[in-house]
Amino acid sequence: xxxxLAILGAGSATRAGVDKLFADLGGQPVLAWSLAAGQSxxxxxxxxVVSPADKIKAVETLIRERAAGARVVAGGATRTASSWAALxxxxxxxxxxxxxxxxxxxxxxxxxxxxxxxxxxGSAVAGLPLADTVRRADxxxxxxxxxxxxxxxxxxxxxxxxxxxxxxxxxxxxxxxFSDDAAALIAAGLRPKMVLGERRNLKITTFEDLAYARELxxxxxxxxxxxxxx
Length: 230
Known about the structure:
Layout: E1 3-8, E2 24-25, E3 28-29, H1 30-41, E4 46-51, H2 56-64, E5 71-74, H3 79-89, E6 95-100, H4 108-121, E7 123-129, E8 134-137, E9 143-147, E10 153-162, H5 163-173, H6 181-187, E11 194-196, H7 207-218
Parallel strand pairs: 1-4, 1-6, 4-5, 7-11
Antiparallel strand pairs: 2-3, 6-10, 7-10, 8-9
């Protein structure tokens, strides 16, 4: 079974106000963290990085310095289109792990665990059961009702799937786009398996997120993944 890691980094990053792929995080670009974690996991035969079309050369330079065997391909206009681009770029991949480049603190062990579960069950979507109270409010901000959090999860990445499940989801999706790949599978009538993720596996969306990530690194609460010895 050939296992492929697809790191998605083709988003516009407009909410962060900076280029998230290349933003400095502890002396390394944000993208380098996810790349190093994927390499350190030791469970992938191939790594594909999905980049904005106008930044492919810059991403290739970053990758070449850290993972000579990884490949860079152009992403699409939506996250879903970028996932399909990754799928096309790995025609021999039997298991595809899709990870957001903007989640730099994903532990290598989480990659390995999700791959192991997907090999057995077909899918593995990292996430956390909701712990906070969930409340619905109207447009004026007035609370209207409590929502039961039983069975509710906050999805993360990596999201790992056997290729045939992603192909089924793609065929059913048509031109639709989804918030993540698990949503595409659910829309196709499939039931991806949720797997307990990590609280430190945060996503950098806004500049405040980036500042918080930098603070964690500065305080020694998040370390750059150790690359395997060649």
